[in-house]
Amino acid sequence: AQSVTQLGSHVSVSEGALVLLRCNYSSSVPPYLFWYVQYPNQGLQLLLKYTSAATLVKGINGFEAEFKKSETSFHLTKPSAHMSDAAEYFCAVRGSGYSTLTFGKGTMLLVSP
Amino acid sequence: EAGVAQSPRYKIIEKRQSVAFWCNPISGHATLYWYQQILGQGPKLLIQFQNNGVVDDSQLPKDRFSAERLKGVDSTLKIQPAKLEDSAVYLCASSETIASGGYEQYFGPGTRLTVT
Q: What is the distance between the alpha carbons of residues B92 and B24, in angstroms, rounded to a whole number?
């Protein structure tokens, strides 16, 4: 079975500071991993995905994530936070079904001026 | 390209009442998903359709939830009767195929259900 753990339900950063959102996964098969972002009252939008190619994955809006098999991690980073990055971020792993996703509980990113 | 459409956006009902949600996926997308997102949690898959057939409904509470996708396009999710614990956002998503759904799913804005 596949599962995802996101450390920290809330992360606060100042504008311009480094963003680091943590995700650890458990998977019985080689994982496909995803980060989605959800803005208030909107659906989820794919930020980036790891599908067994390059371990450093670049996504939209300046975000990137690194797949580390030895640490079973897929942390999301952005060098400099912007006010518009304030949203909830979900890490997901492809589940037991061929295209089903198992999501973590989410991390709310708060950006202060 | 139009995105995934859902309606209504908000619904408030009393417990034991029934409610239905509608989803129209992106044109041409064969695979459709319904997720339940309870406050403070990530989305949980309820049911997955490939065209008008059910692929996975293992987490659908079938005693009260039902879903259909009769013509392989839009879909309806129904709850009857509703319980307080059904209060959540119901998200619909679609992908071109089952295979592509393992790479990217496109989500609608969701329907926020409050059961009082």
A: 8
Smallest Cβ–Cβ distance between B104 and the set A46, A95, A105 belongs to A46
d(Cα A2, Cα A79) in Å, to the nearest integer? 29
Whether A46 and chain B come into contact, CB under 8 Å, resolves to yes
What DSSP line would sit under B25-39, residue for residue? --TT--EEEEEEE-T
Separation CA A109–CA A20 (nearest Å): 10
Considering CB atoms only, which of A45, A97, A104 is closest to B48?
A97
C-beta atoms of B107 and A43 within 8 A: yes
* Residues A47 and A19: beta-carbon distance below 8 Å: no
Q: Are the beta carbons of A12 and A110 closer than 8 angstroms?
A: yes
Q: Which residues of B touch A101 (CB under 8 A)?
A: 43, 45, 105
Which residue(s) pair with B63 in the sheet?
A: none
Read off the tokens for B56: 């996975």
A95 to chain B: which residues are within 8 Å by CB? 45
pLDDT in tens, B18-75: 999 999 999 999 999 999 999 989 999 999 999 989 999 999 999 999 999 988 899 9
- Which two three-digit tokens encode residue A30? 């080689």
Out of B40, B103, B110, the one facing A49 most closely (by C-beta) is: B103
pLDDT at B1: 66
A74 closest CA partner among A113, A105, A35, A109: A35
